[in-house]
Amino acid sequence: MPAPQKKLIFCTAGVLSLACALGTAAAIGTQLWVRGTILCTTGALLVNATGPELHKFIGEIQYGLFSGQRVRQCGLGGRPFQFSFFPDLLKIIPASIHVSVILFCTVLIIFALVGAGFFMFNAFGSPYETLHGPVGLYLWSFIACSCGCLIMILFSSEVKIHHLSEKIANFKEGTFTFKTHSEQFANSFWTILVCSLVHFLNALLIRFAGFEFPFSKSKDSGRITGAVDLMY
């Protein structure tokens, strides 16, 4: 492939990696990872609420990796409540999984920035033969993509398997019991998915630029090796 086209591909991949790093950094600080509604089962059972009356006992909840807010509805109007994971909720959430999600988000940002720098270096500089060359570009893209997948898997398990929303909704609630009525992942969670797909796309762009995948042997090298073996 001609050099100008390679530069264009590397610049595109570098800009995409930089955008992923900035997007992940922005996603970490938001409360838009999960949105849902919570049902005050205690209040609904007390008045035997059904149909339209049930809406008076359905509140809202949304949270991110560090903080969130909920609006509890128990028939007397909404009452907002702000909370933070550190240090308020550490005793009721799976802290090891939650910290791992934050750690992998940090690693994703770092390697996305590293990948963006090396993409630009390969576009406008003279690439080295080792980690600065195509093997390094595959490596940075693979690590960033893997971190994004791990973030989604761990956070999904924390929300769905460990019932994170219900634990948050029942935090410091002695009389009333809340149950998750509806729950869906919000914009910041899907930003991580997009970033993972972008890093996978970057690996395809490297291949499209004419570089072989790491540890792959070309047919020509195999023919040369076979011819040498026949000489002996």
UniProtKB/TrEMBL annotation:
InterPro entries: Clarin. One of its GO terms (cellular component) is membrane. It holds the Pfam family Clarin-2. The chain crosses the membrane at residues 97-123, 135-155, 189-209. It is a multi-pass membrane protein. It comes from the Eukaryota. Keywords: Membrane, Transmembrane, Transmembrane helix. The keyword Transmembrane applies. It is found in: Membrane. One of its GO terms (biological process) is equilibrioception. Belongs to the clarin family. This is CLRN1 protein. It comes from Pachyramphus minor.
